[in-house]
């Protein structure tokens, strides 16, 4: 897709390590709850800036269940 490399590079710079931190909005191990909560957020009941949201799926094994995590990027304060 044309321009994809440029968009990816811009996003990496925008969310660089020194620019801020990722704050967990929601985390669960229940798949049904995972599908319902972001749907409510998308519908507008909980306002979220979706351009700065990250979805993580921490895959489980036989000893640990799969964990779903929704995080928001919080920009750091500029240093003078």
Key words describing this protein structure:
80 residues, alpha+beta, three-stranded antiparallel β-sheet, 2 helices
Topology:
Layout: H1 4-14, E1 20-28, H2 31-43, E2 53-58, E3 67-75
Antiparallel strand pairs: 1-3, 2-3
What do these coordinates show?
The protein has 80 residues and is of the alpha+beta class. Helix content is 30%, strand content 30%. The mean pLDDT is 78.
Helix-and-strand structural type: alpha+beta
Weakly predicted, low-confidence segments: none
Task: Compute the CA-based radius of gyration.
Answer: 15 Å
On the 0-100 scale, what is the average pLDDT? 78
Q: Strand fraction band?
A: 25-35%
**Overall 3D form:** globular
Summarize this structure briefly.
The chain has 80 residues and is of the alpha+beta class. It has two helices and three strands; from the N terminus they run αβαββ.
